[in-house]
Automatic annotation (TrEMBL):
Top-level taxon in the UniProt lineage: Bacteria
Entry keyword annotation includes Transmembrane: yes
Keywords: Membrane, Transmembrane, Transmembrane helix
Biased composition (Basic and acidic residues): 7-21
Originating species: Streptomyces sanyensis
InterPro entries: DUF3105
Transmembrane segment boundaries: 30-51
Stretch list, region Disordered: 1-21
Protein name, per record: DUF3105 domain-containing protein
Length: 215
């Protein structure tokens, strides 16, 4: 075989190898582009799902905030006394949902009290926008535990036993009150959503810490 033929064969093999390498590079580019497109589509789809979910949850909360709480009692918030007093107060409803009260509020930053607390301090907490969960011995231990878990993770709420009330479990806010059947009653979440720092609050945003701790 002549040196010329060997040189031609070598160039042919080199050209063949070059074309094969170019083909591999094209396949790799196509594969990279394809994977990137799939990833982008997945991210876009996931982002859309998250946004839709957040939008749906927001709409549900807004709807719950507008809907009346079944069985709730309402008092005119403007007619409830708001004077600071150092003397005992006789409230017309039990637990009270407003009226004259002690200058010191009950801590209500997710505070769970295992003993009864002074009404005059708890009412001051309601003035600050808190929801007060109360219960009697008729409430099961499991129900009390579930309610305590909810209160503990919810700023502007407090919970305590209250022997002298009609319902086993009651929720109170300034001018609002409802008796519920259990901790799983959907009105519990609805009441929190609607009235915790709700529009009925005389002093929204006022402190729920730095008050009376009950200890």
């Amino acid at each position: 075989m002549s040196s010329h033929t060997s040189s031609n064969d070598r160039r042919a093999r080199i050209e063949q190898m070059r074309r094969a390498e170019q083909a591999r590079e094209r396949r790799n580019r196509f594969l990279t582009v394809g994977i990137s497109a799939v990833v982008v589509a997945a991210l876009v789809g996931f982002g859309g799902y998250v946004l839709n979910k957040e939008s749906q949850e927001k709409e549900e909360k807004e709807a719950a905030a507008k809907a009346p709480v079944k069985g709730e009692q309402t008092w005119d918030a403007q007619e409830l006394g708001r004077n600071h007093v150092q003397t005992p107060v006789s409230y017309e409803m039990r637990p009270p949902v407003g009226g004259d009260h002690n200058p010191v509020w009950m801590n209500c930053d997710g505070d769970v009290y295992t003993e009864e607390i002074p009404e005059v301090n708890a009412v001051h907490s309601l003035e600050h926008g808190a929801v007060w969960v109360t219960y009697t011995e008729a409430a099961g231990a499991g129900e009390v535990k579930k309610l305590a878990a909810k209160v503990e993770k919810t700023p502007f709420s407090l919970m305590s036993p209250y022997a002298d009330q009609k319902g086993a479990i009651m929720l109170s806010a300034w001018g609002k009150q409802v008796t519920v059947d259990s901790a799983d009653d959907p009105r519990v979440d609805q009441f929190f959503t609607k009235y915790l720092q709700g529009p009925q609050t005389p002093e929204p945003g006022a402190a729920c810490t730095g008050g009376l701790s009950g200890k």
